[in-house]
Amino acid sequence: MAVRPTTIRFPGNPIEQEACGVPWGVTLTPFAAKDENDIPPVYGSGGELLPRCENCWAYYNTYCEQDQWSWDCALCGTTNGLSSESIMRYSLPHSSPENMSSFIDLELPLEGSEEMQARPVYVAAVDLSSSEEFLELTKSALLAALEALSPGSLFGLATISHKIGLYDVQGPIPVVKNVFIPPDSAGNLTMELEDVMPLFSFLAPVDTCKDRITSALETLKPTTSWERTTAAGQGLDGVLLGGRGFGVAMEALLKYLGSEYGNTYALARVFAFLSGPPDYGLGQLDTRRYGEQYASKGEDADLALLPEQTPFYRDLAAVAVQAGVCVDIFAVTNEYTDLASLKFLSIESGGSLFLYSNTDDSTLPQDMYRMLSRPYAFNCVLRVRTSSEFKLGHSYGHFFPDPEYENVQHIICCDSFATYAYDFDFVNDVGFSSKELPTIQIAFQYTVVVPPDEPSISGSSSSKRGKYSLKRRMRIRTLQFETARSVNDIYDTVDPEVVLSILVHEVILSSLENGVREARILLHEWLVNLTAQYNDAYKIAEYTRGGLSTSHVDVAFTQCPQLQHLPRLIFALLRSPLLRFHEEGVHPDYRIYLQCLFSALEPSSLNRAVYPSLSSYDTPDKQAYPRHSLSRAALITSGSPIFLLDAFTHLIVFYSSTAGATMPFPPPQDCLLRSTINKLKQERIITPKLIFIRGGIDDATAFENYLIEEQDVEGSGFTSVMGFVSFLDEINHDVVEYMTKSNGK
């Protein structure tokens, strides 16, 4: 459980909070195996015995004052009595995890039947209204998935077109049975999937049926244009529909699987492979809105294309949650698919959304294997509590709030990368007293599927040997922070990566509600305000008889190293596809994909995705400089022949035209550069695309597009003036105007 605050020293009161201009909050990665300092929790059992405060319900922890009979809550100060069991438990201080560490992970008793087999269940739903290339890529991805699945898992193969196909691979040859999807948007299937094929014929054991599943995959063929035309008939305004009945198929599959929720499985995962938009039957999406001429109508294209056009897939996500099913969507397409509507089915059911623009260089098989190889928790409940002087403001991330309890979030499926963010507000105008330290406690309850050979934390053996079992656990982290002595003290402890995380969440929400243009204005105004507050705090700005001039303002934060990277981060964020305009050619589906990706990344990864790192090498075995600015000038002045650019989703190795003919290209497998690349790939939640470019020989556009500091922030490409420099000039001008107006001069 990694927790990173925007500033290590908290503001002492609302006046300081307002005066500093820095977001006040934290990012949280609850299922990370270790904390932000690489320290693991102390494990134990008896989580249900942990004392709780009778006033605020916080858990007992190492920061609580304790005597023989009672303890004082570190969050609200309430004195609580200890039960006789707890008195005995705490008579030896180091006998319980909660007295040994403020970061603990305890087993809990399972609710309901502990004898449940809890076999992992996976279902692939493959779009056949596609191309041969799409299906070949999907087959490769599913073969990779089969290698990653643990023995004892159950796997089902379904196909989607104008009909739903269910495969039985448990016999000598694969058998597929189909049910046709009604073409009208109000029609339901003529029969239940259970009547088409019993669920236990559909779900096959991976360890005994892997070869037959592979054989079934080889039989997948795209539906012909004749089949689609005959089935679909005429669509809206005489346009032929494509025969991709995704909505009906997913609704039916969820109902099909849901019948065994709590018996056969505790969590099922559906992998939905899409080659285009749902355009047939219930849940079909009208993609004509992408072709509208918004500019000629005076409308904001981004504001029109970012909202969902139907609540169907959001509602379907609620059905998935009730059925215990997590849906991952893999869209492999360059046509408009309306991910703005589809995304809810994945992110609100605990799944992920992936987008690949083509099949040629797609990393889908690697992403599939990577996703299934890492541990995950499910049926998670997350609660963040604070000491009484402050409270949670906004909560950000892929979860859904509890309908009854405030500040309780439910997460259907959570891996070790999934990150959430929170910002804080003061409860009143007083702030923190000099005696009390701001305290945060995070409680994360979760369930994991334990393989037959894995012992429990408490050391007990499973009563059902040879079968999967469930373990319910609770991870608790309590943290205390110091309060700042001044605004300058806050600035000195700022973490710019965490500040960026909070800002990204805010601008995503703003763009969804008010459009990209308003989100850009919000971000620009934030930087102007921060710069003005910094100049006030350090008393840099000088007013003369003629007023405040731009030469008297510090926009580079020269007196505060912790803030110096922020202008570059804001400039890069404004240049990113997340906030560039529709008119610049940013595809709305790609923007939605980035919103989903960025809003789940931990701060360091997000920082890399927004402002890529550029390092240089003298040879493949010798690094020259670890970091350069993203500009052509940096390439020229460094004098190095090789550059490595890490943009999180892409890794680009660029050999400059000055690299000698003896320099090996591409770099050999056993060199330092290759080992660095391999390490970066291993640390990612997704597989970065690796590109090698020789300057003067290959097309270097992919590399040059990342040299953003010489690009205009408004997107007009390369300009006669330096992009980042002119951006700072604009900020400088706006800061002078802001400070002059604020001071009435």
TrEMBL record:
Protein's name according to its UniProt entry: Sec23/Sec24 trunk domain-containing protein
Pfam families per UniProt: Sec23_helical, Sec23_trunk, zf-Sec23_Sec24
Domain Zinc finger Sec23/Sec24-type: 51-84
Family affiliation: Belongs to the SEC23/SEC24 family. SEC24 subfamily.
GO cellular component: COPII vesicle coat; endoplasmic reticulum exit site
Domain spans labelled Sec23/Sec24 helical: 495-606
GO biological process, alphabetically ordered: COPII-coated vesicle cargo loading; intracellular protein transport
Molecular function in Gene Ontology: SNARE binding; zinc ion binding
Record keywords: Protein transport, Transport
Domain Sec23/Sec24 trunk span(s) in chain numbering: 119-371
InterPro entries assigned to the protein according to its UniProt record, in alphabetical order: Sec23/24_helical_dom, Sec23/24_helical_dom_sf, Sec23/24_trunk_dom, SEC23_SEC24_subfamily, vWFA_dom_sf, Znf_Sec23_Sec24, Znf_Sec23_Sec24_sf
